[in-house]
Amino acid sequence: MNALTRDLIKLVDMTEEMMKEKEQKEGAVHREKLHLMPPAGWLNDPNGLCQFNGIYHAFFQYSPFNAEGGVKMWGHYTSKDLIDWEYQGVKLYPDQPFDCHGVYSGSAFIEDDKMYVYYTGNVKLEDGDFDYINTGRESNTVLVVSEDGKTFGPKKELMRNVDYPSDLTCHVRDPKVWKEGDTYYMIQGARTKEDVGQALIFESKDKINWKFRSRVESEKPLGYMWECPDLFEIDGQQIMTCCPQGVDQKGYDYQNVYQCGYFPVEFDLKNKSYSFGKFQEFDKGFDIYATQTFADEAGRRILIGWMGIPDADYDNDATVAYDWIHALTMPRELEWKDGKILQHPLKEMKDLRKNAFTCELEAFTKWAPADCCFELRLDVEEAKNLELKLREDVTISWKDGLFTLSMGESGRGRKQRFAKVEELSDITIFSDTSAIEIFINNGETVLTTRVYSEHLEQKVELVSREVKGSVHGYELGSFEVEYKK
Ligand code: FRU
Q: Which residues are known catalytic residues?
């Protein structure tokens, strides 16, 4: 361990300890009960998601010292059941020349009882006339191995910018690794010098020596940069996910500043051929980015996203005031059905239910759960017009094939998001202290948002009457997060 690592360990511990004391004294305002957050400071992408010897691991991009962002390291949570979590501290510090400006995003690959973690070591050069696109930035691919999921061996730099194709900018990052037959593959996001977003495919026989093999891009360019790509199969369909930057809004598509979604694809990695289907967004809400998936030991394909987005024009100052920012989405199980990915809340979430409430929609006016942490399911038999008020000033409505999420003051600059939903069959809402996730029509459409209610008025109110069906509400117990290291 070098002197910098030693000091960083101490500083992170002190910062987290101070935050704990502050929250004990002043209360933990806006802190989630169903979503993972940074113990202190800033969180962004989920990283290294996996299940290793039965234990679930969720690492995350973490800047504990500053809720407005700073140098990135990997924080670490583990769980036995995806409900209760234990904070394990910071596992990867920016302490080497090849990652000194950030241990950027990456993934975990499990084989032979070992966890192989691949990430991007970010370096920003100083003292030069750099634009940090074509010059001044290093994106190094790094490997670090753990035998127990708790401690990591030495970092090994595997690739540098010279190992990537020469027509790319310096922006290459976010390795995700998997195996097919006897070959290991790695996908990374990239920006070309022509400003086209692409994914790069690398190949290896030993997980250590990697060679660039091919690159993939959509038929027409979709943005100038793809971040956090992922490639996997569900229910026999290959899927490539990525986060394109630089895509203009088109009707109700691409309403956020950066996008996050998937292409159904057909990749023949051996023969370097591929074809892309239509890009579809994962989530039509305000706060979603940098999703990553993993297959758990039961074979489920589980997705977790960053419940935030870079460079948004709405704010999260409500939590910055309390020295933290951002959270991860709840884990979602993916299913491929009728040409679409469906996203389902995990069945484990049912264990948190208490104090059930049920009613016919025709008779439903109000439900007042004891806490803002609740699950509400509407099964719709017939609807012409539906409008539901949640919490203080959030309204969801459906009419004429359009679903609308409207935020009042508590949206902190978030206003409206729209999703085309031709027929409405069901809506499931998970409401947390400062977040709402809405699943429509068996998870075909999802909307996620942060929300900062002042008074946390616990009330769900059905405003429109032109609807038939039933409603089921459950108060939810919170998951436990243990901060032991
Ligand atoms: C996505 C991203 C990644 C990068 C990481 C840095 O949000 O920009 O591309 O690795 O965040 O924190």
A: 45
Pairing outcome for strands 402-407 and 394-399: antiparallel
Distance 109 CA to ligand 1 centre (A): 19
Q: How many residues are present in the chain?
A: 485
CA 105 – ligand 1 centroid, Å: 6
Residue closest via CA to ligand 1's atom 12 equals 104
Ligand 1 centroid to residue 33 C-alpha, Å: 25
Query: What are the Cα distances from residue 15, in Å, to 18, 316, 344, 363?
Result: 5, 21, 36, 51
Closest ligand 1 atom to residue 106 Cα is 10
Calpha distance 132→309 (Å, rounded): 21
Residue 369 CA to ligand 1 centre (angstroms)? 37
**What is the C-alpha separation between 391 and 431, in angstroms, rounded?**
9
CA–CA separation, 48 and 76 (whole Å) = 9
16 vs 391, which has greater pLDDT?
Answer: 16
Residue 144: what residue type?
V
Summarize the confidence of residues 253-279 as an average pLDDT.
94
Residues 19-43 have a mean pLDDT of 95
3-state secondary structure 211-265: EEEEEECCCCCCCCEEEEEEEEEECCEEEEEEEEECCCCECCECCCCECCEEEEE
**Which residues are CB-neighbours of 220 under 8 A, at least 6 positions away?**
none
Burial 321-358 (b: 16+ CB within 10 A, else e): ebbbbbbbbbbbbbbbeeebbbbbbbebbeebeeeebe
Average pLDDT (299-307) is 98
Average pLDDT over residues 25-53: 96
Helix locations, 255-354, DSSP H? 317-320
The protein residue whose alpha carbon is closest to atom 8 in ligand 1 is: 227
Q: What is the pTM of this model?
A: 0.97
Q: Which residues form the pocket of ligand 1, taking CB atoms under 6 Å from any ligand atom? A: 44-45, 61, 72, 104-105, 120, 173-174, 227-228, 289-290, 310
Q: Tell me the pLDDT of the chain averaged across its residues.
A: 96
* Model confidence pLDDT, tens digit, residues 110-138: 999 999 999 999 999 998 999 999 999 99
Three-state SS for 280? strand
Report how far residue 350's alpha carbon sits from residue 253's, in angstroms, rounded to the nearest whole number: 32
Residue 485 has pLDDT above 70, yes or no: no
What gap in Å lies between CA 245 and CA 227, rounded to an integer?
A: 8
Secondary structure, 3-state, 174-221 = EEEEEEECCEEEEEEEEEECCCCEEEEEEEECCCCCEEEEEEECCCCC
